[in-house]
Design a protein that fits this description.
It is a single chain. The protein has 89 residues and is of the alpha+beta class. It has one domain. It contains three helices and six strands; from the N terminus they run H-H-E-E-E-E-H-E-E. Strand 2 and strand 3 form a beta hairpin.
Length: 89
């Protein structure tokens, strides 16, 4: 995950929309992605969540928000990290 130029507010303002499209049932190893673009500035954030469990799992909306927000806040250009059955970028 990360912007073409740092603009955390764009990512934060759109995290609910992103998680509405990413949340739900995942097969083991499945990765879902989303992109947010500010057409006025050209800033982009790419989001990714992957199920790293050995079995199918469900990603709740609030867990998606928490995981992606942690990565947004963790680095000026986004970050990546694992939390339990999930990998966030």
């Amino acid at each position: 995950m990360g912007p073409s130029s740092p603009n955390k507010q764009l990512a934060i303002d759109n995290i609910d929309i992103v998680c509405k499209t990413i949340q739900g049932n995942f097969r083991a190893g499945l990765e879902r992605t989303s992109c947010v673009t500010n057409t006025a500035t050209g800033n982009e954030w790419f989001f990714s969540v992957k199920c790293i469990a050995k079995s199918d799992k469900t990603l709740p909306f609030n867990q998606c928000q928490f995981g992606l927000r942690r990565e947004i806040d963790g680095c000026s250009t986004g970050g990546d990290g694992k939390d339990g059955d999930w990998e966030y970028r």
